Automatic annotation (TrEMBL):
Pfam families: Citrate_synt (PF00285). This is Citrate synthase. The active site is at H305, D362. GO terms for biological process: tricarboxylic acid cycle. One of its GO terms (molecular function) is citrate synthase activity. It catalyses: oxaloacetate + acetyl-CoA + H2O = citrate + CoA + H(+). The keyword Transferase applies.
Length: 426
């Protein structure tokens, strides 16, 4: 199959690639060479496939999300986060012994160098945890200086294990710093998710019993966030990694990309928005109007998605989970009602219907995090914790696939050549 482009009276042919779910893409890699300089322009990469990937399948029109062929609904219902991490990174669900070895290896690497405390101490208590976690992840390089030899299976595996082991410790430290708690080193006798909870919440003078309702809710949330193909932060990880920067540096860059309120930072922004609406008397209609007013910068946070033009399947699962978790924990949160009210109005509103704006993963996730006792400014860190295996899987795929350095082109719109003007002539 071929696609033809006509430019300046001449036709050029390009091969068409077909994915395993019958998605087609015009391979324009020879466009510039064939035409003597023509490039494509695609602001925000809305129509650009940056790679071929076998990790995650997403169909935004139909609201489908699958990791390595398994539906997100199936995995969220049945799997553990660690199994999903293994699946994403290595391509298959682990056998019992593979999973045990995977977790044993992670536990063996979960120590974070004491010197890292000094770096953490350097941050003010008010620092946003995303900035802290991104910086600490980068700082890990100093304590694990050898770059990953991607030709060596063992080297690759060890780098991945180290990150999966140390990253939750850093996330928990960021929270403990913020809440003034002494640092905690976790408990190897617990599962991965249970240990995260204990590292985050154990008070120095008290025992911490993991509540199975909370652990199961967090397990589900982490799975739902674990990968989402070539989104902003994942593309960042792949592009940074494509320069052969190390794994930790690539992930640190991805964390920064995730932080923005148009991406992962939306989960914090949603709760702040819902709180604001509550404090303003709970008038959802007023905020619907604001969201539709092009003169008003307000957007309905947690609504809309670059790829989903249908329900985000993760939002469906999370909405149900929010009801279950709050019910099981006996938490009543008035902002859940405000969220449901906004959703109902938006789904019946012409503006939102026409633009195919549906709730995304962030619309209800913050309500669950809040019920679990996680402070608002930690929400995006929780997202990063969930996304870590996806970033690692994508980085690994990119490096093993020997992808070239990511380097887009541009259409230059600036000044043509001009001469330097001395200061007194400007
Ligand atoms: N509230 C009001 N209007 C919206 C919203 C919203 N949340 N989202 C999109 N629109 C409108 C835009 O104003 C635009 O209208 P127009 O066609 O009249 O100009 C139209 O819908 C298309 O929106 P774009 O911004 O062009 O869509 P894009 O694909 O570039 O952006 C994005 C997607 C960034 C997610 C956007 O919908 C948004 O800002 N949502 C709110 C933030 C959010 O929830 N982000 C989390 C996304 S999920 C994730 O990253 C984990």
């Amino acid at each position: 199959m071929k696609a033809k482009i006509e430019f300046d009276g001449k036709f050029y042919e390009f091969p068409v690639t077909k994915g395993s779910e019958d998605e087609y893409a015009i391979d324009i890699s020879t466009l510039r060479a064939q035409t003597g300089g023509l490039i494509t322009l695609d602001r925000g990469f809305k129509n650009t496939g940056s790679c071929e990937s076998a990790i995650t399948f997403l169909n935004g029109e139909e609201g489908i999300l699958r990791y390595r062929g398994y539906s997100i609904e199936d995995l969220a219902e049945n799997a553990s986060f660690l199994e999903v991490a293994y699946l994403l990174i290595f391509g298959e669900l682990p056998s019992e012994s593979e999973l045990n070895k995977f977790y044993d290896d992670i536990k063996a690497e979960s120590n974070v160098d004491e010197e890292m405390h000094k770096i953490l101490d350097g941050f003010p208590k008010s620092a946003h945890p995303m900035g802290v976690v991104s910086s600490l992840t980068n700082a890990l390089i100093a304590f694990n200086p050898s770059s990953v030899n991607v030709e060596s299976k063992e080297d690759m595996y060890n780098a991945i294990i180290k990150l999966l082991a140390k990253f939750p410790v850093l996330c928990a430290w960021a929270l403990r710093k913020r809440t003034g708690q002494p640092l905690d080193y976790g408990d190897d006798s617990l599962g991965y998710v249970e240990n995260v909870l204990k590292m985050m919440f154990k008070k120095a003078n008290q025992n911490y019993e993991v509540d199975p309702v909370i652990a199961s809710a967090l397990n589900k949330l982490l799975i739902l966030h674990a990968d989402h193909e070539q989104n902003c932060s994942t593309s960042t990880v792949r592009v940074v990694g494509s320069s052969h920067a190390g794994l930790f540096a690539s992930i640190s860059a991805g964390i920064s990309a995730l932080w923005g309120p148009l991406h992962g930072g939306a989960n914090q922004a949603v709760i702040e928005m819902l709180e604001g609406i509550k404090e303003d008397g709970g008038d959802t209609k007023k905020y619907m109007q604001k969201a539709k007013d092009k003169e008003d910068p307000f957007r309905l946070m947690g609504f809309g998605h670059r790829v989903y033009k249908n329900f985000d399947p993760r939002a469906r699962i999370i909405k149900k989970s929010a009801d279950d978790v709050l019910g099981n924990l006996g938490v009543e949160d008035p902002i859940l009602d405000i969220a449901k009210g906004l959703e109902k109005e938006a789904l019946e509103d012409d503006y939102f219907v026409k633009r195919k704006l549906y709730p995304n993963v962030d619309f209800y996730s913050g309500i669950i995090y809040r019920a679990l006792g996680i402070p608002t400014e930690m929400f995006t860190v929780m997202f990063a914790l969930g996304r870590l295996p996806g970033w690692i899987a994508q980085w690994r795929e990119m490096r093993l696939g020997k992808e070239p350095i990511g380097r887009p082109r541009q259409v230059y719109t600036g000044e043509k050549l001009r001469s330097y003007k001395p200061m007194d002539q400007r």
